[in-house]
Amino acid sequence: MNISSMREMAFQCIYSLEVQKQKMSEDYIDLFIESEGITDKNAQNYIKTIAMGVANHEEEIESFIASNLKKDWNINRISKIDLSLLKLAIYEIQYKKLEYKIVINEAVELAKKYGEENSANFINGVLASVVKELEE
Question: Residue 106: how many CB atoms within 10 A of its CB?
């Protein structure tokens, strides 16, 4: 399984928790991995690392999101898909220190695949603003 596929699976795991309004746990991640039939150990480790990382830094990540929204927006207006993609991307940029151009590109592609018509532009704009804030 390549990194893009692993990232997509991590997004799906994060999204499923957003929808269910549950706290992330290793048991939940194991259940997700099992239900998706993911046998690749690298993929399992990647999904666990990303999902638990997002959960452990959720307050900081949501603060990044909230501070980079336009004035008339708040985090509660963001679709669960877009919110999950933003959390994943911000975690990878801020805490995993991955190349932001790659992370943003993949988040935008996932937004095109799973999100609404304007999701890709929205994700791109928020993440560009987050990167600018982090570079200051």
Answer: 20
